[in-house]
Every structure is written in C-alpha cells, then in structure tokens.
Amino acid sequence: MSYKIIGDSCTDLTPDLKKDPHFQIIPLILQVGNTQIIDDETFDQKSFLELVKNSSESPKTACPSPELYKEAFECEEDQVFVITLSEHLSGSYNSAVLGKKLYEEEHGKDSKKIAVFGSDSASCGQLNIAVYIQSLCQASLPFEEIEDKVRAYIKSMRTYFVLESLDTLRKNGRLTGLQAFFATALNIKPVMGAESGVIIKLDQARGINKALTRMADIAMKDAGDTRNKVLAIAHCNNPERAEFVKQEMLKRGIFKDIMITETAGVATVYANDGGIIMTL
C-alpha cells in the first residue's frame, strides 16, 4: 500500500524530509499588519522577523481551508495521514477533518484511507509524529494499527519550550487560562510545556541558558528511559542554542535519534527570534 503524510505548515520538517515525496505541506497564511505571507517554501525567516520587529501589530495566522486539504487527498496514494497543530492553537485540525468529509462525500469512504491527527503539539512535535508515521508505513503495518499506534504516541509525547518572549502568544490569546508572565526586567524566562495540547508553565529561571538547562532537567525526569525515544529540537534563528540543548540532553540520556530543525512561518510567529521548542 502506498502512503502520503500531510502536515500543515507548522510541521517543521528537516531539509531531507522536505525533499521526500511521501511528505506534503499545506500552508497557513501569516499576516503582519497589511502584509500577508504564505507559509510555504518561499518563506524567508529573517525578512519575516524584521517585518515583525518593525510592526506595531502582533502577527496573526490563518488556517488552511478545508478545500486545500481535500485537494491534497486527490492523490494516487492509498493511505493518507494528516498531522496538524494542536486544536488549542489553530483551526487547522478542524479544516483537515472537514476536508476529509468533503473528499469522502465526493469519492466514497472506501476510496481511500485517511487519518487526521491533532498533534497536541506544534513544530518539532509534528515532525516527531511525522517521522514515527513514516517508520510504521515502512514497516508495512496495517492502516488501522498505524492509526492506533500514532494516537498512543501523541498521548505519550511531551512538548517543552523556552522563548525570549511570550508576548505573541499572549496577544493572540494562546495563553488561555494562564496568567501572562512578565519578568523582562529581571531576565526571568519561563519554561513552558503542553498538557493535552494546552500551554502550561512548568518552571522558570533567570537567563535563557539556565531556563534551557531547567527544561532539559524536567524533560528527562518526565521521559524515564529514553533509549527508544526520538528527541526533536526546533529553533527560531538560533542553531547554536539548539545545539546547546542537544548537548544538555546528551549529558542526561541516550536517544534513539536526535533531529534538529528550523521553524518555518507559523512556529516563527509564536516562538519569536531565538525561541526553542523540544519534544520527546
């Protein structure tokens, strides 16, 4: 059986995976003031960060239409797996589900097997899930077994992040139920996580490196035995910081694999310049 793995554009694939024909990215739309940017292969991170820096308005995102997902399902592959941003961060999941419904209404439910997964994460979390799906497809497991295993994987995966600023998340309402954190003058950085896709604060530390080190401590405490786990790290315009996190994690454990990737448009909106996201 042939397969395709579709992610919305918060699925921050590595350069090699972007070249893999099994993967397809559905772009979200970014907006800064009156400027709209399609989050596809033309996205220029440095120009975007400069645009955000010079704008008085907080950047916004718009999820893909159901029609875009439906078009993506019009492919020759027999099995399609979709990975989207957490439902608490975007309407992308709902669009994908509706796109599946539209496709099946037109072609019939038996024409193609389609599974839509809300990642309960973002960025490298979606990458982590995508790589896991591909490993199951390459092992030729039945579609239903892959679906069950991926849903269990999503529940077991943990997401962590340390950002220079939570301002964009706060302004765009992504910190629902969480008091906004203001300690800029003291250089205190919160260590954040996700619980069933909802952003939560885990700890804090003074200075970015101490916060990243604390993030590594928390992640390893949560993870237990990491020898069969994949560590994924995403950075926004700061590969040195991603490497720092990798080395801190290697001090604490052994991993099945480690992937480092760069944030595309959507994750750049929320991570801001210098932000680090990690999943395990």
Automatic annotation (TrEMBL):
PROSITE patterns: DEGV (PS51482). The keyword Zinc does not apply. SUPFAM superfamilies: DAK1/DegV-like (SSF82549). Keywords: Lipid-binding. InterPro entries: DegV, DegV_C, DegV_domain_contain. GO terms for molecular function: lipid binding. NCBIfam families: DegV. This is DegV family protein with EDD domain. It comes from Lacrimispora xylanisolvens. The lineage of its organism: Bacteria, Bacillati, Bacillota, Clostridia, Lachnospirales.
